[in-house]
């Protein structure tokens, strides 16, 4: 039996969430874990009730889409809305978090970030993570291997 490892399982969840993204530029997913249980998930997209970038195009300002809320922030806000503590939690993200998401992750009490792909890794974000003691690690994600495990079990 080729049982899926926890890291692969949670990273697969983040990638699955990224498939819900409404951003045309980059699809990102995030899964927050506590005690090996998923407590929240998020993907990048528009504010609830706002038009989506996939429908109306990106709303660009200074090279950034200002319509989009990042996946990490959506997952953190989901915890906030539900009254779920993120203190000591872990987050799995498809891409390295931006500076603002990094700051929010640190402030939320999350202790570990696992990400699958580098994406404009900001030097100040890395400095803040190192100073705060938040562990961050690139965990490669092999969707084909995960798919093969699924097919072999069927």
Quick rundown:
By secondary structure, this protein is an alpha/beta fold.
**N- and C-termini, Cα separation:** 12 Å
Record field, number of beta strands: 9
Mean pLDDT: 93
Q: Radius of gyration in whole Å, from Cα? A: 16 Å
Helix-strand sequence = HEEEHEEEHEHEHEH
Q: Given the helix and strand composition, which structural class is it?
A: alpha/beta
Shape: globular
Biggest sheet overview: 5 strands, mixed
Domain CMP/dCMP-type deaminase: 5-136
Organism: Staphylococcus canis
Protein name: ComE operon protein 2
Family: Belongs to the cytidine and deoxycytidylate deaminase family.
What keywords describe this structure?
alpha/beta, 39% helix, metal-binding, Deoxycytidylate_deaminase_dom, hydrolase, dCMP_deaminase, ComE operon protein 2, two-stranded antiparallel sheet, 154 residues, five-stranded mixed sheet
């Amino acid at each position: 039996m080729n049982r899926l490892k926890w890291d692969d399982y949670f990273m697969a969840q983040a990638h699955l969430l990224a498939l819900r993204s409404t951003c045309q530029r980059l699809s990102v997913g995030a899964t927050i874990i506590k005690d090996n249980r998923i407590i929240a998930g998020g993907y990048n997209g528009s504010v609830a009730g706002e038009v989506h970038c996939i429908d109306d195009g990106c709303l660009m300002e200074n090279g950034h889409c200002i319509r989009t809320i990042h996946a990490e922030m959506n997952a953190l806000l989901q915890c906030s809305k539900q009254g779920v503590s993120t203190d000591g939690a872990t987050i799995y993200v498809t891409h390295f978090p931006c500076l603002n998401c990094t700051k929010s992750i640190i402030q939320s009490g999350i202790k570990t970030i696992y990400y699958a792909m580098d994406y404009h890794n900001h030097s100040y974000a890395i400095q803040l993570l190192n100073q705060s003691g938040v562990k961050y690690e690139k965990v490669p994600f092999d969707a084909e291997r995960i798919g093969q495990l699924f097919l072999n079990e069927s």
